[in-house]
């Protein structure tokens, strides 16, 4: 891509926190909710953290979306943006990011953002539809899987567990779905590369927010099927859980190291940042210390039962606030020109191969 600006300005990663309402189990356990109190001098405060915004159990999906709405405007100006949710299982990451996509009140950030983007495109959307595409992947056990390939949903974990239901480390892609690997396109003097991306990940052209919601629904179904299989296996064996947690931890451990090193190095010594130590951090390379505008949403349970995990989440994401990115914008028109040039080049290559 052609850059509009040679000297991008630094911008901090924004970190917001969202506490979900108490769930049935937490209510039954008869524990008091942990209170978020602004100010000092309260006996309850064990640790004071500072964040860009805090959303409580009463905050609506609509209110939480307002924290990332400015990113939609910036994306339309040509910036790249990332929103990622971080938190203990069951604290509301999926609810915050996806929510119930068909319910006006309950839909999350992704459906709201795509609707806002297509709304901004307005009439222009008709002419640029082929320039907008969507993809969706999942990382499990350091393996990448495409949540939107045509492979049948039921095959997702089919070959990946042994007869005891223990995850056997084999790829879940042996069902014929393309195996994904990460590659880096650095670009050259004239063209900004794509950065780190998953090779062979299916890209789906979308012409409307409804198209995107359809894809999300498909991905949710695949994840649901995968999780159901996982639970079935885990009821017979502990190993599946252990392996899952081990791999989540591995990625998150590296994410933590990337965040700390970025903070300490002030983003100056890029070579020291251990992006390559996990797939997650490699994919988030431009989001943390790179060219994206980034918001991190930490999700929390309100319950006393989860206070240790909540404190650990808050300490973890608090570090991310010290990271500065250097967002760069690409003119949307130039982007379209590049897309057209790339399509022409691909067509020419195809013709040459056929000749
Ligand atoms: P995670 O993705 O972090 O594992 P989920 O998003 O699946 O967690 O949330 C777990 C449960 O809590 C789901 O049933 C979800 O609907 C509910 N939940 C999470 N956050 C909220 C919220 N802010 N308001 C209402 N329900 C929520």
UniProtKB/TrEMBL annotation:
One of its GO terms (molecular function) is ATP binding. One of its GO terms (cellular component) is spindle microtubule. It is found in: Cytoplasm, Cytoskeleton. Gene3D superfamilies: Kinesin motor domain (3.40.850.10). It comes from the Eukaryota. PROSITE patterns: KINESIN_MOTOR_2. Residues 12-323 form the Kinesin motor domain. ATP binds at residues 87-94. Keywords: ATP-binding, Coiled coil, Cytoplasm, Cytoskeleton, Motor protein, Nucleotide-binding. Its main location: cytoplasm. The keyword ATP-binding applies. InterPro entries: KIF11-like, Kinesin_motor_dom, Kinesin_motor_dom_sf, P-loop_NTPase. Pfam families: Kinesin. GO terms for biological process: microtubule-based movement; mitotic spindle assembly; spindle elongation. Belongs to the TRAFAC class myosin-kinesin ATPase superfamily. Kinesin family. This is Kinesin motor domain-containing protein. It comes from Emiliania huxleyi (strain CCMP1516).
